[in-house]
Amino acid sequence: MCGIVGCILKDEKAAPVLLDCVKKLEYRGYDSIGIATSSSKINIKKEKGKISEAEKKVGLSDLPGNMGIAHVRWATHGIPTRKNAHPHTDCTEKIAVVHNGIIENYNELKHQLIEEGHIFKSDTDTEVIPHLIEKYMSNGMDLESSVRNSLDQIHGSYALAVISTDEPEKIVGVRKESPLIVGKGEGKYFLASDVPAILKHTDNVIYLEDGEMVILDKSGVTVKNMLGEIIEKEIHIIEWTPDMAEKGGFDHFMIKEIHEQPGAVRDTLLESQDIEKIVSEFGDIERICFVACGTSYHASLIGKYLFESLMGLPTDVILASEFKYSAKAMNDKTLVIFISQSGETADTLKALRMAKKTSETLVVVNVLGSTATREAKHVIYTRAGPEIGVAATKTYVSQLTCIYILAAHMSNRLDLVDDLHKVPQYMSDVLANEEHIHNIAKKYKDVPDFFFIGRGLSYPTALEGALKLKEITYIHGEGYAAGELKHGPLALIDDGVPVVAVVPPGNSHDKTLSNVEEVRARGAHVISVGSQDDEILKSESHDLMGMDGEIDEIMSPISYIVPLQLFAYYISVEKGIDPDKPKNLAKCVTVE
Ligand code: F6R
């Protein structure tokens, strides 16, 4: 999982533009950065670490030439070092390649190429590509055909950008199972892993499909299939402004995105009519199966509670990476719903390809034109806008909004859609009071372990609160169904252990409160999320993150997650961690 960019400009130097573009992709990986430009030779600068650190060390934009390619890396093969940073070159240093994806048969190809005399400089799977291209070009083939022939030998996933000094005014890009888009500006042409990278330069975008190749040169952009035949592609006008992809005055993308959540819910509510239409197209459904990973999995769990309680429709939630073990239980009466903010998660795409063989499929996705949207039968868009912070926030509440609208239309409970319109205000109230949560975060920032508990619809909220804490503070947080604590984990509760309890008013309230009393009796520090008017909960809690007392249990998940996101965010900031780029993680996980 990495980010790639390529550009051809008229007279401007390419390196500063490439650097600016690739910075917008740092959410895809930040182990290392590299840029290659082509003038009379291939010029390369690359370095380990985040872009800002690398820039200070080696001055990345100081390269000649008005065309080139760039890369940010999230390591899969070969540890993050300068030598493993992209671009990678062939033996003659005339060809440079940036790659996002995995070459599954690289070991075999590498041995074969070494036997043929090629010398490798890195431990990456990617490096086989420039050597294969070199082999074909040295036999007299042009760059485009050499890339095509090389890819015939490669098994795996890729989005590639390739340059060669033998064809100095050309970039060849190609995709299979990794995202790649093309930007067509005025006399300047781009390719990139994602739209925010190029939005400052053009809003005219072409989405490439698997097996499509793009050739960028000074005269424009040509898209071809793998037989070399030209394909006409639609140009999409992107409505996101570059500002929407920037920090907008906040310290981090994550806090900006937390603040954008009321708007994200409002915008997603505009999808209600489209969702109603999709519901009318469903066949005969006897079972629903949600499939997702991480935060999207937690949104799916809320879907299960809704579908089962509103319709009595049997609903399962399966982790995408585990789906293949349940695939045989799907049939034409199962609706399989995939939840994915990126639409590019490898585990989810694999499961989608399997499920569509037997069942009707629906994806709920945030990224327009992403792979999942082209594979599923039905698509619902969450209108969260670009999410740059690695930890999902506004895409999560938008996913929940879609799931609620879907459940409302399927169960004919349209009053729920009306109730959803009140949610943005509940969220804004929490955001207006964020200093209170910041102060609670300061108290607990040095604690090593947390428990998060909730029942029913609040159980997924507890899981998501714990995940946010783990991801961006590196503190151990464990989410449990509140009633499950006594079956084992209670042994870990001791003096001062913090337990975050999600306790909205409603059916589960009294039982969760009993669980709160159980942990208090064993010395736990209780931090609760509940109604600000709940005097009993207040008396049982050391700290209360108060919510509007009007919020019903059924509507609680969308707004009740906000204080837990803020709690994790402020602990992260207090600990001096960059919440936008937690270690070992990346925004879009395109490996299985
Ligand atoms: C957590 C997070 C991840 C993603 C997961 C699935 O904050 O962002 O757990 O939710 O990797 O990603 P998508 O939704 O893009 O399929």
Helices and strands in order, then pairings?
Blueprint: E1 3-8, H1 14-23, E2 32-38, E3 42-48, H2 51-58, E4 67-73, E5 88-89, E6 95-103, H3 106-115, H4 128-138, H5 143-152, E7 156-164, E8 170-176, E9 181-184, E10 189-192, E11 204-207, E12 212-217, E13 220-224, E14 236-237, H6 253-259, H7 261-269, H8 272-281, E15 287-292, H9 294-311, E16 315-319, E17 334-340, H10 346-355, E18 360-365, H11 371-375, E19 378-381, H12 394-411, H13 415-420, H14 423-432, H15 434-444, E20 449-454, H16 458-473, E21 476-481, E22 498-503, H17 509-521, E23 525-531, H18 535-540, E24 543-547, H19 556-574
Parallel strand pairs: 15-16, 15-17, 17-18, 18-19, 20-21, 20-22, 22-23, 23-24
Antiparallel strand pairs: 1-4, 1-10, 2-3, 2-4, 5-6, 6-7, 7-8, 8-12, 9-10, 9-11, 11-14, 12-13
In short:
With 592 residues, this protein is α/β, with parallel strands linked by helices. The protein contains 19 helices and 24 strands. The strands form four sheets. An eight-stranded antiparallel beta sheet has the order 3-2-4-1-10-9-11-14, with helices on one face. It has a six-stranded antiparallel beta sheet with strand order 5-6-7-8-12-13. Strands 16-15-17-18-19 form a five-stranded parallel beta sheet, with helices on both faces.
